[in-house]
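Hello forum,

I keep getting stuck at the same step: I have a sequence, I want structure tokens, and every attempt I make locally crashes halfway through. Rather than fight my setup again tonight, could one of you with a working pipeline run this one for me? It's a single chain of 794 residues.
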Amino acid sequence: MYSIFRLFLFLITFVFTLSWFLPMTPAVIANGLDPSWKATLNYAFLEKLAFGRDVIFTYGPLSFLNTNMFHPSLYGFVFVFQVLVAFVFAAISVVVLNVQRNIVVKALLYLTVLVIAIQASAVVDNLNLALPVLLVIVVGIQSLTKDNRAFLNGIIVLLILLMSLTLLAKGSSLLIVIPVVLLLDFVRVLGKRLPIYTVAIALLTAITWIIIGQPISALPHYLVTLFEVVRGYSEMAIDGPMKNVYTILLCALALVIGFVVLIFTSFKQFLSIRDTKSIDAVSYLIIGLLSIALVVFLSFKSGFVRHDGHETLAFFGIFIAALFFGILYFSFSKPRLITLIPVLLSISVCVFYYGKYMQDNFYKNQNYFLLSAQNAFYTQPVEGYRFIRRGIATRAHSQPFSEPFLISLLGDTYDLEKQYAQLSARVTLPDYLTDKTVDIFPWEQSLILSKKLNLSPRPVIQSYSVYTESLVKRNVAHYLSSDAPDYIVFSVQTIDDRYPSMDDGSLWPIIWRRYQAIDLVGGYLILQKRADVNVVDIKKVNAESYSVSLGETITVDNLAVTSGNGTLLWLRGEVSKNWWGKIVSLLFKAPIFRVVIHFDDGSSQTHRILPSIFESGFLLSPYVASASDFAFSQSSQTAATPSLKNVKSIQFVDTPQVRRFYNHKVNVTFEILEQDNEFIASELKQHIKNHELFTDIVDSDAFTVANGKQWNRDWLKGRDVLFAHADSRAELNLEALKLSSYEHNNKINVEYGIAEGAYSGDAKTNGVIFNVIGINANAEQTALFSDTLDPLND
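Reply #2:
Ran it on my machine without issues. Output:
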């Protein structure tokens, strides 16, 4: 009867957990920074690019198991993976009933596993952190009981398989998987048993690596580059409110109190009993507590290094850590009232702050836990039932996991061709890119994929992720090799207020020498690889080095290397942390290092500098913040280009926080780069000047808009345009606008029209009047031009 009850409970639990993990709302592709790297990693997997060698990122070849964005051909893999995850959680929720406790404690342990499953289904990083701790719990329970050993062995095998898959989905899982399996094997070695867990993980990972089509020779590269990516992740730190950090530290402190009391009481029990079973219990209890400590630390780092929306990871992680603490407490120790107090304290603190944070930030003061319970135990199972029914009905008309099947099951969001068409319509790229290898800077690979071009990404696929010297060198080596792409679709963007030319800045001199700008489309420069350039000779001359103090101003005009406006000034240097800064960077993050830039027009800007790649250097002056700036920086007429600003002086920001963690001296070297006047194709130069003129006019004080909220600047099919709704008015003060001599002899050509969506949509316009009015010095108005467009009839 008891076995039948367990089987029934397992089946019910599996149905619920499966409804939480089912991939019911995935995406295939989208525009933007994050969707682009997700789509690129899917592309790299399908094209059999070698991860660790051809592709370097925080995620691995099986990234689609974690990202909820994947190509239709990968849906079956994800579905099976999530079914296995749901099976394991359901099985473990029944396994905890093996603990020799009363029915109330068993019920609490069962519910705790379910709550962990809910959190793991909500945030995939929780799943990666939870699996190793679950392994410790199952192995510990197996060592303490003789019941259901075959079933427990099966769960252990599945957990190891899932852990090996997560290592190839998100490489940073290595930081918790490897320490946990080493600790488990350490206990086995002490008991004179073979260290099977480390071997099993290594073997399964290698086998999976080969099965998915990755060359075995690339696996060491994957592990090495993973270390490089993880090691430099703290350099991506951004500022944020410290109150949430203090909240997490309070939760962690409560857990530490529980750790100390639990270890102390368990050790006293061990001293009083000293049998093999108590030794095993204490051993697995210690391993479990160390695993929880890793969960807390990794959650804290991943949440507050970026300190934006990522901080939810810290709250999720600390919450499941507290839940795991409760499971360990009741599974491997004999509860006493005095030891129960810190356990309840730690869990209650985590639950209170976690729930408050979620309610304040995401659920707008609604009761998060009631909403979560309703979603988990009603909404999701109902949706899962409907999902399965749709799948069965759709199966009768098409093959399972085929694209027609998935479109019928998931809707138009999973119609790959439709999504391609929508993304492709955003920017019109030239036809000559077809059948050529293409890379795009700094991200937006989704645009290239949506146009079905031959994407040839650099190893570190997105420029903001090149945040260590070793990663810089890998991208540089790729662009110096014969594997460099035929074309580059290039723009200048960055994140977190970095100096714009710093991201992948070491590639800029190579691109200037090896490519030619031939077109400007949709705000992107199209760069073509030159056939006659095989060896890139980047000449840097007149190097001049200084050791400057924080806060000290360096006047660029006074440097011996500079020769006035039009000079390409390269800056590299060394910003070193003191011993305290290195410790803080390991445990948390050092303060952001910033530089103030003063320009020759009297303006100034403050940007952040990444110390880890400062040694590689970047273009300091002229200030390049757009694709056209990038092109014109190579013109001998740089000084006459309106959009380009030259740097007059720089100053490394001096604050008490920076002084506390960084050395007070910064070593800098200024160098001059030779320009390449052939970089811009002659037919492109006038096109870029027109684009710059438009931008300058619209952004200038001479241009004003009567109803500003109705206007915005955009790029329509490769042309600069202003969108407006009637009734709007724009004024251009010609006296205040100072045009340089080359701009059409001070003539401004204006084109006008109606956007297609305004007369082809449901709310069709019945016409629009364009008026041009001249106003003289006496405020007298003269109608210079008027035209009425009637799109419904003409």
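The chain has a mean pLDDT of 84. If your local run keeps crashing, start a new thread with the error log.
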